[in-house]
User: Fold Amidohydrolase family protein from Rubellimicrobium rubrum.
Amino acid sequence: MTTLIHNVILIDPEAGTETPGALVLRDGAIAERLPAAPESLERFAEVVDGGGRHLAPGIVDWGVKVSEPGERHKESFRTAGLSAAAGGVTTIVTRPDTAPAIDTPEILEFVARRAAQDSPVRVLPMAALTKGREGREMTEIAFLRDAGAVAFTDGDRVVEDTRVFGRALTYAKGLGALVVSHVQDPGLSRGAVMTSGKFASLRGLPAVSPMAERLGLERDLALAEMTGARLHADQVTTAAALPALARAKAQGLDVTAGVSVHHLTLNDFDVGDYRTFFKLVPPLRQEEDREAAVEALASGLIDVLCSMHTPQDEESKRLPFEAAAPGAVGLETLLPAALRLVHGGRIGLPQLFRALSLNPSRRLGLPTGRLVVGAPADLVLFDLHAPFVLDRWKMRSKSKNTPFDGARLQGRVRGTWVAGHRVWEG
Assistant:
């Protein structure tokens, strides 16, 4: 089927442009890019009038937790896929921190089958770096890579044994595999639920210094330099860590970094009166850290913006702040929350979609994230200025633990296409 999407503003993150135009979709790919709709529309089986809205490459959300196997009551591939489609996310890159962990080809193949059956969007799994995510013995990286793993990570668990982590990086280097690390010093950050400062002291909560992130990042970058491995730091959220990242890139190390939308749009004051929906890993940072992370994303020092979608049920959040489970869902709120930066004049739309779509695609070796002829027809149509108040009970995720409940947001998804098929109509 040939589809024409016209009367839209095309957001091209590769060229860095916003231009009026139209796209022709055929056989799951972009077949033509036009300045406007042709006079005759007879050759198109479907014609979509975008109403002057923005059309961009579909979002590649890197670091999504889908709770299969083990905790399907929190999130399934079906509900995660529906939530992603409603949020303009066309590819979800899943984490291996399930129960059991995704650390064998058999578990990985089970996950891939369930995803293919149930999810309307693309699902690419990451596998555990060490067995059971325990940091003692590395997994069979070669077999897992052959089974479809796009990267290797222990999630938010730091591989504390430097020798084990170094060996894993060396092995991954030989295979060309990508390793994703969580950059925290475990000794300093263990048990902490807030970033240290006056506000944490007033709340009487255990806190961690931002230097814990810098120490963790410095170690991992040194090992990446030693081994020559490909490394991605999943969450760089503090001003203290950014100079180390800049030095590593200037040295030519094969390293990239990401940040979650929550750390770019919220700060530690949002915890307020112990609001557990704002308990995250790493914890929300002070305002100067948030500002530094926004500047790093706009400049390209931080490469990837993601939701770090972590579903938790009501029971695990209805606890004292220190005992509550960390994490927040974000598949549906990633785009409207990120558009706060656009409306605030902090970043342009092409730069935003470079971090949301193009950079994660490039780092993972995917053909998505571009608006060129031949690229996959994974697209999101959104109304940049449409205001709404988020009601968490209307979200498609099984879990409703969003810090944006009741927040005023601006920017609604009106259509999502995966391989040329419309999977969401808003």
